[in-house]
């Protein structure tokens, strides 16, 4: 029997009780997994198990897809007017907002990010995204295209039908919003798999989906491991599109599985090793703060983190001194994510902790110079790693590969051309930044960078209305903005004869 997990929070930032059903959410209700699987959920700040949730497999995905297909045919898709779909999304946003403290506390408990960040950034942004797409739901339209008088020609934008969505563990609720918003606005039904590491807020969201009045089967949330539930979504013949956010390695597997099954459409938001170029005419104080935000926020667990900081040699020493001082200051605000002063939390899991520490060991073996960090934070429990800055050659493993932790590599350059070459010397192309007070240089360099998102004199400041996605091995397709709607709809061209004769 699926059960309800009850947790009482008594912390400096939130006091209250939450109840989370641990079953699979299929066809509007919580159910037990067919094969009885379960998954332990851990608090990364302590390393201890919080609870156990249901773990679905291929059989559960089959049931969820069947429910989603029936809902698409009978109560959603083009059977539900766009204005009504928008009202459902708006109601869901309202319910998340009404319970934002509880949801932020769950996110903090399960992910380890500071409570204030979870509330004021992740959950607040998720609500904004849902409302943004609620506004789009009744504005999905094609075009009338003039040909000649005897022919009426137009296009329709139609939903795929059943879409599969696989979201990551670094921003669990925000990524659910990024995925559900455009998919539901365009009329698709959804089978969504949260990360098995961080499922709690998605589980709680199911209660709000019911309360918002979504017809059963429109949204199905099935927890499970990537190798079972995730693989089943990628291979399923009745899923017409899959959207994935996560590692490049897994993205390749999803692309392959989709191709081998029914050639379903695939959009991928994958890894990155994003460059942050700081020229000698930049506002150094601001550049230091933005670069630190880009790499140390969320304990560095951001696909677009500013993990390669390229510094013009004339300001190198000044920047290193100021940047190191800022990183050292974070040591004093690292710890309990429920503490109001905490700014730096733990890595999300033992596996992720070990991964980051492995890269730090590799950098040491290759002769990197560490200015700060490079070790576990403290001797206590939890998966905490010190904010780390190192310098070394641009071809070191820790400089080339995505670490996904609070680790910044500093690299010198001489000229604008050198900076562009170093920045683009990567298999990734998710994001990049340029810091300069010269607007001509900013535009020139930005246009030369091989990245899907480019920042000028800022970093990581996303908007619901602007697209986000990568070049090269950082993926394909786009999240957010009007562009994301195209990821969830197919275009039909209609040719109507109103006078042609043979």
Name the descriptors.
502 residues; Aldehyde Dehydrogenase, Chain A, domain 1; Aldehyde Dehydrogenase, Chain A, domain 2; 2 domains; oxidoreductase
Number of strands: 23
**CATH homology-level superfamily of the largest domain:** Aldehyde Dehydrogenase, Chain A, domain 1
- Rounded average pLDDT: 97
How far apart are the termini?
67 Å
Sheet/helix structural class: alpha/beta
What number of domains?
A: 2
Shape, please? globular
User: Please, how many helices?
Assistant: 15
Low-pLDDT ranges: none
Q: How would you concisely characterize the structure shown here?
A:
GO terms for molecular function: aldehyde dehydrogenase [NAD(P)+] activity. The protein has helices at 58-74, 82-98, 100-111, 115-136, 172-185, 200-212, 226-235, 248-260, 284-296, 316-330, 350-365, 397-400, 416-424, 439-448, 481-486; strands at 4-10, 15-21, 24-26, 29-31, 37-43, 48-55, 151-159, 162-166, 189-193, 219-221, 241-245, 265-269, 275-278, 308-312, 369-372, 388-391, 407-413, 428-429, 431-435, 453-456, 471-472, 475-476, 489-497.
């Amino acid at each position: 029997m699926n059960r309800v997990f009850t947790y009482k929070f008594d912390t400096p930032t939130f006091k209250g009780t939450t109840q989370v059903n641990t079953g699979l959410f299929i066809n509007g209700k919580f159910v037990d997994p067919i094969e009885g699987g379960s998954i332990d959920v851990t608090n990364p700040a302590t390393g201890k198990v919080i609870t156990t949730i249901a773990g679905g497999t291929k059989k559960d995905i089959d049931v969820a897809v069947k429910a989603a297909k029936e809902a698409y045919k009978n109560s959603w898709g083009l059977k539900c007017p766009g204005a009504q779909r928008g009202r459902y999304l708006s109601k869901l946003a309202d319910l998340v907002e009404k319970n934002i403290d509880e949801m932020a506390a769950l996110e903090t408990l399960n992910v380890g990010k500071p409570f204030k960040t979870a509330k004021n950034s992740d959950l607040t942004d998720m609500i904004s995204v849902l409302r943004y797409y609620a506004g789009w739901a009744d504005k999905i339209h094609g075009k009338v295209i003039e040909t000649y008088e005897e022919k009426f020609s137009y296009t329709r934008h139609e939903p795929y039908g059943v879409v599969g969505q696989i979201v990551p563990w670094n921003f669990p609720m925000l990524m659910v919003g990024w995925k559900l918003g455009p998919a539901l606005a365009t009329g698709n039904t959804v089978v969504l798999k949260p990360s098995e590491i961080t499922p709690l807020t998605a589980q709680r969201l199911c209660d709000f989906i019911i309360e918002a009045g979504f017809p059963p089967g429109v949204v199905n949330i099935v927890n499970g491991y990537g190798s079972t539930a995730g693989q089943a979504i990628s291979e399923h013949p009745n899923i017409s599109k899959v959207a994935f956010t996560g590692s490049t390695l897994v993205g390749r597997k999803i692309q392959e599985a989709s191709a081998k099954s029914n050639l379903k459409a695939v959009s991928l938001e994958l890894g990155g090793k994003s460059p942050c170029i700081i020229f000698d005419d930049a506002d150094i104080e601001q550049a230091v703060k933005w670069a630190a935000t880009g790499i140390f926020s969320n304990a560095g667990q951001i696909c677009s983190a500013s993990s390669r900081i390229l510094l013009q040699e004339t300001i190198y020493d000044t920047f290193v001194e100021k940047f190191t001082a800022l990183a050292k200051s974070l040591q004093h605000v690292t710890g309990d994510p429920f503490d109001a002063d905490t700014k730096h939390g733990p890595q999300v899991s033992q596996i992720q902790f070990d991964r980051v520490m492995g890269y730090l060991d590799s950098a040491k073996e290759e002769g990197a110079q560490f200015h700060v960090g490079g070790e576990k934070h403290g001797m206590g429990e939890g998966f905490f790693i010190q904010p780390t800055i190192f310098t070394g050659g641009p071809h070191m493993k820790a400089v080339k590969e995505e670490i996904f932790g609070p680790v910044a590599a500093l690299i010198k350059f001489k000229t604008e051309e050198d900076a562009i070459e170093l920045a683009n010397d990567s298999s990734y192309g998710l994001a990049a930044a340029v810091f300069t007070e010269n607007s001509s240089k900013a535009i020139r360099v930005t246009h030369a960078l091989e990245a899907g998102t480019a920042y000028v004199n800022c970093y990581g400041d996303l908007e619901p209305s602007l697209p986000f996605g990568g070049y090269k091995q950082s993926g394909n397709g786009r999240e957010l903005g009007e562009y994301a709607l195209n990821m969830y709809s197919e275009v039909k061209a209609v040719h109507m004869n109103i006078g042609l004769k043979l």
